[in-house]
Each structure stands twice: as C-alpha cells, then as structure tokens.
Amino acid sequence: MPIPIHRARVAATAVAVVVLGSLAFASIGEAKSIPAELRVVDSDGDILAEQTQYTQTSDTEVKTDKKADCFGPDNVGSGKTALVPGATALSQLLDAQVSDKDVKPVSVSDAFDFGLALCGIGEAVATEEGFLLLKQNHADSESGAEGTTLKKGDSILWYLVEDFNQPTPDELELSVKPTAKPGSDIKVKVVSYDGAGKKTPAEGAKVNDADGLTDAKGVTTVPAESDLVLMQATRKGAIPSNVGEVCTTKLSKCPLGYAGRIGGTKGDDKITATKDAETILAGAGDDKITADQGGAPDQIKCGAGDDTVTISGGSPSKLSGCEKVDEV
User: Fold this and answer.
1) CATH number of the domain at 170-249, out of 3.30.2010, 2.60.40, 1.10.3470, 3.30.2420?
2) How far apart are CA 237 and CA 146, in angstroms?
3) In this predicted model, what pLDDT tens digit does every residue of 79-103 receive, in sequence order?
C-alpha cells in the first residue's frame, strides 16, 4: 500500500473551498513562540503537513480572501486585513506556511460576526456540503480555527470531510520506535480516538507491509526489509494515522533528519529538538536552536537572521545558513 504523503520533506461549521485568491500575513510585535504538533490530512488521506510547528504568541494579521465562500457565494471574504489574536489553531497554520508549501494557501472569510471562518488549507478544499474537521488533543473542537487557543505541546489535526452527512471519523495514531535491527520484526501499535478524545486500541487496522491486521491490542509487526521503513495505519471510516519512519542501518548512516520535522516562524524562535534525527526549518528571525542528535544526524536549515545552534552528541548534523555553532 503506497503511503499518500505530500512533503517538502473549524470547527464543523467551517467548510473548505477552492481558493483562487492570495493570502498575506505578518506577526505584530515581539513575542515568544510555542511548539505544538500539526497534521493536515485531505479527504484522500494525503498528508499535507505533519510536523512540530512553532507558533508566535503575538497577534497576527491575515488578509481575508474574496474567493473564500465557505458558507456560499454571499459570504465571501472582504479582502481586508483581519487580526488573529495570540497563538491559535489559525495562527499555527499561518506560521506553518514558512516551512511547508503544502499548507498554502490558507484562506479565511470575515463575513460573520462570530469571527474568521477557515475555508481552505492548501489542496484540502471542499464544496459547501463538506467541512474541515478540527481536532485538538484528539478531541473534536467546537471553537473554530480562530477560537481554538493553542498551548505548548498541543496536538492539532485538520481533516477534510467531503459530506456533512458522513459520520464524524475517528482518528488513528501510530506509534513505533525510530530505529530497529535489520531483518527484525518491527512492533507497531495503533490506537483510535473518538470525537470526545477517548482512546482505544485500533483493532483491524491495516499497516502497509505488516504481517497482518492489528490485533485486539492494536498491535502488528512489520518486517525490517529496507534501510528505511515507512508505515501508516488505515481503517475504513477513520482518519489515516501519522507516518512512522524506522531506520534499520547504522545510526550515522540513517537519512538526515528522517524521524521528524520542526517548523519555525518568521520571528525569533527558541527551538529545542529531541534525540531523534530531525529536519529543522527555522525560518527567518534571530533563532536559537538546541539539537541533541542522539547518534543519528539532524538536518538544520537556519534561514535568514542571526542564528545560534547548540549541538550535543552523536554524528555531525548538516547545517546551512547558521551564523554561530556551539558543540557541547
């Protein structure tokens, strides 16, 4: 089963539309940024974004879209600039545009008194019969993109539902260690979250190249038959899982930054990576990046600004655009 991924690597009332307009945004003032998980999945199961995304806590301006007819042609955006206060599910998407082209364009309408309506994320678009489902920490959100306050460590998922009449799908989540011995059986666990965020083992899920469907505990095994094993869980009527990537060769020879992705903002970020091999796209601003390689190499692209990177452990990372590098 091929893994449907697109990488450069608001609620139930906010629908997505084909976006022909343009979007511009800018952060207002100086403020820190916070990390949270972001995943965007279209109705075909294609992953448009899957990363740890830093989001500025300062206010953001967004230009509304005159083609954003979320609730019909009489409710398009005005084309004026609107304010997005603080770190929200909407401002997270705006900041994600810095490092991930697949979330472009983000389209919003200001036709309603209750706030901004999200109308599209990249290719995740729909007719008036569909909507963008927003889940925060695995539970359905009823606050919309602008009204969902983002906290450090949150998990945000957007999924395009084509038809309001469809049952709200459960969310699958796959967990697997990022390394394994060649020729071994890789243990994979899959869980399912319902609309209230209740977690249960995902029995009967299909994981590509697995020996069989997941059992009653949500567990199956995948043979380690290549240097890098990619896997994703699917089940009828559910949102496909995140993608797990397992390296089975010597750590220093694992692909650069294979195990995860971190996106920065246009402002000044303090980015802290994990011990896994990660790709860090810091963006503009004077960033401070702390990377712990843990034996597998990171890939760090500092971008514009005066950036400082502190690295500890493992094989040397590949760095570009970084003004100062300290090794400890």
Assistant:
1) 2.60.40
2) 28
3) 999 999 999 999 999 999 999 999 9
